[in-house]
Design a protein that fits this description.
two-stranded antiparallel ribbon; 31% helix; 10 strands
Length: 170
Amino acid sequence: MRSDLTPRRPWPRRGLALALLALARCACAQSDDAALKAAYVYNIAQFTSWPASAGPATRPLTVCVSGGHALGQSLRKLHGKPVGERRLAVLEAGPGAQCDVAVLRGGGPRPPELGSGVLAIVDEPKNGYAGAVALIEEDQHLRFDIDTVEAARAGLHFSSRLLRLARNVR
């Protein structure tokens, strides 16, 4: 028999509810992280100049991302936003896709299909190919490195304003 002075046992589902709340916060943090990285991709594209051979200014600026990449959904939310005189279009990477920006996962070699006029942005390069721009998480902040040699190989130029914001420029 229980009296009013007997301490209550914690409700068993309370622990489960707190655990689910913590998982939801983690999912939100991952979602926020992807949205922040997508915003970086968008803003980096705004401060990049493509060669005249990249096509007419009326053609959309295409960002290609693989279907399973964590940034895909966040990038698709930016579809149609202006980038200079062009509009952003987000496509799934694959054969025949004409990309102006390729968002790649880190850790692999330089993809052979990257040609002239393609800005390669690598998300978290651990080792291997880091692209013209590498997105780096450091001390709980998102930073980016720029490789001007890789950009020049693709025929791209970055604004001096963007270069000043980079963590490292080589």
